[in-house]
Input
Amino acid sequence: MNNERVAAKKKYGQNFLKDENVLRKIVEAMPKSDNKIVEIGPGLGDLTKFLVKVKSVEAFEVDTDLCKRLNITFKDEIATKRLHINCGDVLEAWQSTLVDEPYDLVANLPYYIATNIILKALADPMCKSLLVMVQLEVAQKFAAESGDKVFSGLSVITQSVGTASIVIEVPPTAFDPMPKIDSAVMLIQKHSDRADKAFEDMLRVAFAQPRKTLLKNLSSHYDKQKLSEIFEEMDLSLTIRPHQLHTADYHQLYKKI
Ligand code: SAM
Output
């Protein structure tokens, strides 16, 4: 590895993962599959160097200085096609799929766009699983169970396409520079792709004010009389809060609305 120190660029969410134990745990938690690995934001290549040992990797890095550095560090792996680096913004490269073959996403994500990236990967039919480092609070939202205070639209979307779990919580000291927040590695194993946009629009309304009742939130967009009838049919209390429903209830509610 090239050990020359690099000034981290805040605007790209650069917090480099330096803790070898955490890096090893990420590799151990990778689902066993024949899929290609996609890494978003290889940075200095600390995780990449473990990943290329396992399988071939398609990487996306926005920072041109880091791309140059990675091209030197991994010149052998690039020459043997074990690694391919796409230099540019991953969100611009991402059409309905990010790559045209089945892949597992493994990444220490840039936190400023982490939720957006996860939602895109959940919708991408080529993406089969996600093993990603994100802010702990974000991981808790995606992995929450019905009844948890942080159960949200993101949890419902995740449960609609697969199962999520937190693999390991990671303190700021694992990174350089240290972020101000705790992080976590989260695994999402997909069994299908994201449902339609209208369902997600309904979720956004349902969870708009999480502490208010579900009926109150939904009434801001849908007919209250009709909602009351649906609640009665589904045997839902009129005072139920959005986090107290199950994912299956949301699908049923959506069909009825
Ligand atoms: N994987 C490295 C590690 O674990 O140390 C770096 C992780 S760092 C949290 C996030 C990385 O994502 C940085 O390398 C950053 O430049 C890159 N990045 C930020 N925004 C990006 C984007 N829109 N497209 C691709 N890469 C991006």
